[in-house]
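README: folding subset

This subset contains proteins for which both the sequence and a predicted structure token string are available. Records are stored as plain text. Below is the entry for RimJ/RimL family protein N-acetyltransferase (163 residues), shown exactly as it appears on disk.
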Amino acid sequence: MIKTSRLGLRFLEKEDIAYLHPLESDPEVKEFFPDGTRDRAKTEAMINRFITAYTEKGLPCFLLFDLDSGEFIGRAGFGLTEAGETEVGYVLHKKFWGKGFASEAVTALLEYAKKYIDTDYIIAYAVTGNIGSTRVMEKCGMTYYKTDITKGIECRFYRIKNR
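--- output ---
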């Protein structure tokens, strides 16, 4: 488990559908995600993809919990973009938005990446207009480097040197 001042991050497990399905099926939470909401079957498939990404490529996904209350906050982790770049991303329940949890989680994951992920850069992107996610990337030291289309939607891309 990774711990920050307020968060506990633990590796995703197959049984975590109970945590992730309500998060992944919430239209407000998934408003800026090109893939949109996921039903239970698509959430299970996503969990399987995340577990495979970790076992085959060393790119983990974590569940985020409030250390004080034990409450489930969301998920955060790594993946590969369509262009083969290593990305960091997160999804939080609405009640935790605007409280610094996303920045805290991404900062912890960027530190994790320096030790365990062999790549020159870690990237992140957000749909153009998603000001909250843009602020998270900037607060975590990531620098804007391009605007591009991904999954059919215009996004702003940020990156940070990893190695």
